[in-house]
Amino acid sequence: MLLEVKGLHASYGPTRVLHGMDFAVAEGSITTLLGANGAGKTTTLRALCGMVKTAGEIRFAGKRIEGKATEDIVRLGVAHVPDGRGTFADLTTEENLRLGAYTRTDRSGIEADLARVYRYFPRLEERSKQQAGTLSGGEQQMLAVSRALMLRPKLLLLDEPSFGLAPLVVQGLFRILTAINHDQHVTMLLVEQNAAMALEAADRAYLIETGRVVLAGAAADIKRDDAVRRAYLGY
Predict the structure, then answer these.
(1) Which residue blocks in the chain are alpha helix, DSSP H?
(2) 67 φψ region: left (φ > 0), alpha (ψ -120 to 50), beta (else)
(3) How far apart are CA 5 and CA 14, in angstroms?
(4) With contact defined as beta carbons under 8 Å apart, do 163 and 86 qualify?
(5) Rounded Cα gap, residues 64 and 68, in angstroms
(6) Dmax over Cα atoms in the chain, in whole Å?
(7) Among 156, 176, 148, which residue's Cα sits nearest to residue 85?
(8) Cα–Cα distance measured from residue 56 to residue 10, given in angstroms and rounded to the nearest whole number
(9) Nearest Cα to 141, choosing from 192, 216, 195, 214?
(10) Model's pTM, two decimal places?
(11) 41/209 Cα distance (integer angstroms)
């Protein structure tokens, strides 16, 4: 397992959001966290990045990382694509991408990875000199994912990548994400309201309710669960 989480609690001030979560992410897999709004999915990703107060055990590549500073977790190879995309609006598309590689010193590798993300997202190459704030919502999401890939991460945390996007754009984005997982063996932990799309892409799934894991298993099995079908898949 690339990521192992045991007894994870997280809170914002006095408000506890996660209540002893256990889950794991296999190296090279896509794992999805499902749940209603307010279940604790986004907080889980923030906890893994050291962005909220936590208790419990988080192991990444066999090493304990809970309590580490966010920038140190990034340097270990954990990239976070937050909800809301978080692009730097006043910088160009290419400046945003290069900023994603700020921890790296391998100049030739950075150039190769820049060319690679342009192959995955040719629209970004067309917009490379354009200010990021003027991109469409779909283009900004492509940019957020690509900027994270410029870190050359071992683990990519994706928070609601489909939010606010047209269905065709979402389908294209998920095709590219699965291709990146397959081609580059980038492990992904995906938080996604579009449960059907997430379960189609994922190898394993966890269902979260009020900060607790209530169901876990292979994504194909979770997709067939009657309760999940009624609550999240609409049939």
Answers:
(1) 41-48, 70-75, 93-99, 107-120, 122-126, 137-149, 167-184, 195-201, 219-224, 226-228
(2) left
(3) 22
(4) no
(5) 9
(6) 51
(7) 148
(8) 9
(9) 192
(10) 0.91
(11) 9
Q: Lowest-pLDDT range, 109-113, 162-166, 170-174?
A: 162-166
The band of 7, judged by pLDDT with boundaries at 50, 70 and 90, is very high
Q: Which two tokens stand for residue 109?
A: 């590798």
Span 86-118, pLDDT tens digits:
788 899 999 999 999 988 889 999 999 999 999
The number of residues making up the chain comes to 235
Q: What is the mean pLDDT of residues 12-20?
A: 92
Q: How far apart are CA 133 and CA 140, in angstroms?
A: 8
Best CA proximity match to 159, nearest among 186, 202, 192? 192
- Decide: residue 56, CB within 10 A, 0-12 exposed, 13-18 middle, 19+ buried: middle
Q: Would you state the pLDDT for residue 85?
A: 65
pLDDT mean across residues, the chain: 92
**SS3 annotation, 10-64:** EEECCEEEEEEEEEEECCCCEEEEECCCCCCHHHHHHHHCCCCEEEEEEEECCEE
pLDDT given for residue 235 in this prediction: 65
